[in-house]
Amino acid sequence: MKIIASPIEMQRYAENARREGATIAFVPTMGFLHEGHLTLMREGRARASILASSLFVNPTQFAPNEDFSRYPRNFARDCELMETVPVDVLFAPEPTAMYPAGSQSWVEATEVTRGLCGDHRPGHFRGVTTVVAKLFNIVKPHFALFGEKDFQQLRAIQRMVVDLNFDLEIVPVATVRERDGLAMSSRNAYLSPEERQRALAISRALKAARQCFDEGARYTAQLACAARYVLERTPGLEIEYIEAVDAETLAPLKALDRPVVVAIAARVGATRLIDNMTFSPFSN
Amino acid sequence: MKIIASPIEMQRYAENARREGATIAFVPTMGFLHEGHLTLMREGRARASILASSLFVNPTQFAPNEDFSRYPRNFARDCELMETVPVDVLFAPEPTAMYPAGSQSWVEATEVTRGLCGDHRPGHFRGVTTVVAKLFNIVKPHFALFGEKDFQQLRAIQRMVVDLNFDLEIVPVATVRERDGLAMSSRNAYLSPEERQRALAISRALKAARQCFDEGARYTAQLACAARYVLERTPGLEIEYIEAVDAETLAPLKALDRPVVVAIAARVGATRLIDNMTFSPFSN
Questions:
Q1: Phi, psi at residue B10, to the nearest 5°?
Q2: Is B32 in contact with B72 (CB distance < 8 Å)?
């Protein structure tokens, strides 16, 4: 695996590859890889002749009170895991190479980043769309793969790609879960064994929403209610939000007459976890 | 000259050209071409194997009270002028192709768009950087040429290109003037003969700043003052701003110890005109 730290060098690599007719699939990451990342990478591997990934814990998507400095990092282990896929080229820049002095430009998707995490993490999605736009211009991929676990992030990036005419395809990949249902996340590393048990209530709450849907619910409020019932009965878990909204626009929605996503954010101890499930009335 | 209206078709054209080893120079315009545009195009012609231009009166860079609907248009004449350069490919999309329903993403350069026109045209530069980012992703140029007449626009775009890692070179081109000194602008078409005479005070004011500089001025305020003296004595001309600021960052600056731009915006009748001149203490 080739490791490149310089944005300019990465652009030269990508540009040469494209000129030679290669196709590039790209999986951006913040490292501390788990099976979710590796699933994205294997999917990318199958779609293009070159598989590129990036490892960059992006400071601009963390609010000052968030976990930027203690975000888990293990570069050597991440490289080993990438070699198993295998990843062809890893872009791993320093923060000063990504945000040199004087940096002041931002990319923002507006409506889709309101509500849900957008209401609780001010500046987060602006940081995400900005760094992803930069990475797209540096890595020049034909395909970019993102997990559905970060659902609002996925929708914001899809919106940005369409609105700003990025010439690439966003490939969403289903959330990978532990055997007991917990959505995989680098932040799961923060959980004590006891907290990890409590965290299972989140995926259980989504299963409750699923059951409610399967039993013929007609309104989004019914799904949110079923999920809330489970979470409110879990001691030591603090609900940040439970919402059932339009799965495309993330706008409020009343009737279950189009695809809906039920999205949850909750704190277990000091750890903020998110998860979601989509419901399509047409496929049932 | 090939004329393309579809963003997707333009991307295919550009992608194929790049893969075949062509280089693309790009001159984005809002049409109603004058010698300033044609100078940009000839400069682009000399730099690359393909010369692309665009003609799009971008609605998002006009405030609701501005002249979007009456902005001068003459597509047939513009095409004829482009053929004389010659331009190889013209991208001329409809507004609905550039901003389909649901569009909601913006690109913004922040500090550099504060002050000067940024203070008087709210939303203007956000509209400019957004449409230029879109055009870059559609036309995929190696070089893009912009006139120094729109100096803050040039600096905002240069900032955006660096900050978002667009893999292209911005080529600034000196302002082209009428023989009597008036900076060329599509908006000069709005001026009556009498207004046109009055408008000459703007370039005269910049010449006064130049004289002041040549005579050994040491502070930016002296340059602004010299320009203001001329404009304030011109009846029927309303000053919007006269500023002497850092020519790179457009931040306020006191001493003439680094490159400075003197920038003017003024109204003559209903027509808003801008002009500027740069001063480099190192070259004198």
A1: -65, -40
A2: yes
**Chain B CB contacts of A162 below 8 Å:** 102-103
Whether residue B283 is predicted with pLDDT greater than 60 in this model: the reply is: no
Please state the rounded mean pLDDT for residues B248-263: 97
Which member of A102, A111, A137 has the closest CB to residue B167?
A137
Write down the pLDDT at residue A26.
99
Q: Is the minimum CB–CB distance between B15 and chain A shorter than 8 Å?
A: yes
| Contact with chain A for residue B130, Cβ under 8 A | yes
Q: For residue range B30-84, what is the model confidence (pLDDT) as tens digits?
A: 999 999 999 999 999 999 999 999 999 999 999 999 999 999 999 999 999 999 9
- Give the residue ranges of chain A where pLDDT is below 50: 284
CB-based contact, B70 to chain A, within 8 Å: no
Each domain of chain A, given as residue ranges in start order, spans 2-173, 186-277
Question: CB of A282 within 8 A of CB of A257?
Answer: no
pTM, entire model: 0.97
Does B126 contact A at CB distance below 8 Å? no
Percent of chain B surpassing pLDDT 70: 99
Predicted confidence at residue B93, as pLDDT, reads 98
Predicted confidence (pLDDT) at residue B284 exceeds the cutoff of 50: no
Contact A106 B110 (CB under 8 A): yes
Contact status, residue A37 vs residue A166, Cβ threshold 8 Å: no
Residues forming a β-bridge with B277: B262
Q: How close does chain A come to B96, measured CA to CA in Å?
A: 12
- CB atoms A107 and B110 under 8 Å: no
pLDDT tens per residue across span B108-155: 999 999 999 999 999 999 999 999 999 999 999 999 999 999 999 999
Q: Which residues of A touch B112 (CB under 8 A)?
A: 104
Q: Which candidate in A34, A37, A120, A124 is catalytic?
A: A37
Structure tokens at A264: 């949850």
- From the candidate CATH numbers 3.40.50.1370, 3.40.190.10, 3.30.70.20, 3.30.1300.10, the one assigned to the domain spanning B186-278: 3.30.1300.10
Query: How confident is the model at residue B282, as a pLDDT?
Result: 72
Residue B175: both structure tokens together:
């302002």
Distance CA B105, CA A8 (A): 26
Taking the Cβ of residue A105 and every Cβ of chain B, the question of whether any pair is shorter than 8 Å is answered with yes
- Average pLDDT over every residue of B158-165: 98
Residue in B159, B165, B167 closest to A104 by CB: B159
Catalytic residues of B: 37
Closest chain A CA to residue B14:
A167
Q: Which CATH superfamily is domain A186-277 in?
A: Pantoate-beta-alanine ligase, C-terminal domain (3.30.1300.10)
How much is the pLDDT for B187? Answer: 96
Query: Any CB–CB contact under 8 A between A96 and chain B?
Result: no
Contact B133, B60 (CB under 8 A): no
Q: Which residues does residue A16 pair with via DSSP β-bridges, in sequence order? A: none
Rounded distance between C-alpha atoms, residue A75 and residue A92, angstroms: 10
Helical spans, DSSP H, in A20-51: 35-47
For the domain with range A2-173, which CATH number is right: 3.40.50.300, 3.40.80.10, 3.40.50.620, 3.90.1300.10?
3.40.50.620
The answer to whether the Cβ–Cβ distance between A15 and B164 falls below 8 Å is: no
